Amino acid sequence: MQAVLKTEGSVLELGAGHFSTPILHWMCALKKRELVSYDNQERFVRWSHAYQTDWHSLYYVTNWDNAEIDRPWDVVLVDHSPSERRITDIKRVANLAKYIVIHDSNARYNHHYHYDTVYGLFKQQINFDAVVPSTTVLTNLVDLSDFWKGGIGNGENANSQLWFPSAGAD
């Protein structure tokens, strides 16, 4: 939510869900921001069609390679299946998205998602672990040092760590 509040451009949701889709929809509704949601599970696409508008597009994909995501985004939420597909799509948007928000980033889930294999591709990341499962924000395009400033709670109670990799994207 914080990434959406800090931006004004297009939002991409990889993996529709009972929580993320309505929240992103209503956050984008205020300014009729473009929101594009993809999922490969028909039940989620059928359920989420209630949110389809002229500014919120929903797509069912049987092959994630066919998802048209290779363009600039302000925010990308990565929360889709199959698990191993997440790192492929993170790589696809690594230099196109201001904020890439990855769900389920706890170390204990790494054997499912293998996020550690993409962290080195990013100039900065910030981890939010005040709740389980954790969320991580990755970027090559913006400075995360003031990520929690403004928006939700003004960052007063944000339990997060900012990480600058020693090697990675230049």
Gist?
With 170 residues, this protein is α/β, with parallel strands linked by helices. The protein has helices at residues 2-5, 20-29, 42-48, 85-93, 110-113; strands spanning 11-14, 35-39, 56-60, 73-78, 97-103, 124-128, 135-139, 160-163. The protein has an eight-stranded mixed sheet with strand order 3-2-1-4-5-7-6-8, with helices on both faces.
How would you describe this protein?
The protein has 5 helices and 8 strands; from the N terminus they run αβαβαββαβαβββ. The two termini are 27 Å apart. The chain has helices at residues 2-5, 20-29, 42-48, 85-93, 110-113, and strands spanning 11-14, 35-39, 56-60, 73-78, 97-103, 124-128, 135-139, 160-163. The longest helix is centred in the N-terminal third of the chain and has 10 residues, at 20-29. The radius of gyration is 15 Å and the shape is globular. The protein has a single domain (2-163), classed as Vaccinia Virus protein VP39 (Rossmann fold, 3-Layer(aba) Sandwich), CATH 3.40.50.150. 32% of the residues are buried. It is an alpha/beta fold and 170 residues long.
